[in-house]
Amino acid sequence: MVLGSLKPTPVWKHFEKLCSIPRPSKHEQQAAEYVLAFAKSCGLQAVRDAAGNVIVKKPATPGMENRRTVVLQTHLDMVPQKNQEVQHDFTRDPIKPRLEGETVTATGTTLGADNGIGVAAALAVLEARDLVHGPIEALFTIDEEAGMTGANQLKGGMLDGDILFNLDSEDEGELCIGCAGGMDVVAKLAYAETPVPAGAIAFKVSLTGLKGGHSGVDIHLGRANANKVMTRFLWEARRASDLRIVSWEGGDLRNAIPRWANAVVVVPHDKADVFQKSLEAVGAQIRAEYQAIDPGIECTIEKQPAPARAMDAPTTKRFLDGLYAAPHGAFAMIRDMPSVTETSTNLAIVKVEKGLATITNMLRSSVDSKRTDVGNMLRSVFETMGAEVETRGGYPGWQPYTASPVLKMLRELYERKFGKAAHVTATHGGLECGIIRSNYPAMDAVSFGPTIRFPHSPDEFVEIPSVQKFWDFLTAALKEVPPKGAA
Description:
It is built from 12 helices and 25 strands. By secondary structure, it is α+β, with helices and mostly antiparallel strands.
């Protein structure tokens, strides 16, 4: 075992097992079966609901039967991102964790500490015989990363608990009490493919080496978006060389800042040199602009066999104009929490092939009206382009409740245990608390977890010491849960 020497042993044991189980979003069957089999081996009651979520119930330890029931909530799926040179099938291949100093990371792929450490901690609690706690319900949801499907389809009446510990936060020492809601805006543009003139030259333009990251928690860092960078390259080059687009593929996940993009274009024979010089000039500008933030950006240009047909010239212009105008990044920060993004949009995926261009954007905001406003902004841009636009998968934010009795208990416990105050905050990432509470409005929710950096990218890692502190805090919190009937 690579992680066998790490503490706390129960958490790392389960996490390493999870790494061996493929579980990208929408492919959680094996992980769910593992949890069900594990619960059975522990003699615990477990069910899988119609959505695919797993719920495991553990009775209170002796003397704690009168305590309020706590729901430990995590999600089974992980974001499947890899470096382009890495051969990895997330539906079949295991994640390969490795130790790197005081951290655990993966080999060329996302690690899945988001939310695998939370899942592992919940399993460790269910398995433990030496902890003191009241009644526990562990809720393992599916498809959190790609659509919040499990939380959205969770029915009322499945859970008895009225305290929710969401174990999906990514900064040890923080108590999260709010998150952004989200929505996808998808534009589809049908276009005509017309013949490529004789003698035209095709080029493949490839962007690699970008950092990317989580489209919520990393969006304010100003890292490069591969689709926006590619747009800038081709918008400038089109003005100089009359290029036409043959194909485009950029990004592959709605909730990850795109780290790569490939486009094939054709240019007239006599404009080939101008085209290449334009890309070199823009490339130098971009590398200089992002040197301090995203220094690994690389652009390569390769000649390709010329295709017979390409996007017609007027649509190429409208398409590039629209992508250039489409917003990406953070719009505003929360006034009372200036380090937390309030509203943002991620121009996540661009796909152009065989007469259809599809552009997928993910919006987030803790203010529903602002999420709608940015959605309308995108709609106006893409409809001007000539595309059909639809919104998908909207989910509510989680409004902070600073007077929460559970928050008060956790703050006092953290300071007593670690000698310093916990930081109370909200996140621009998506958590399932707001959705779950729509069916369980009396549930008092707080989210916490270990320190995880660069989730949703192959740079993801978890800080080993933070996992021990997270576990110590979680197990102490379970012991502190108030009696039934208490606030």
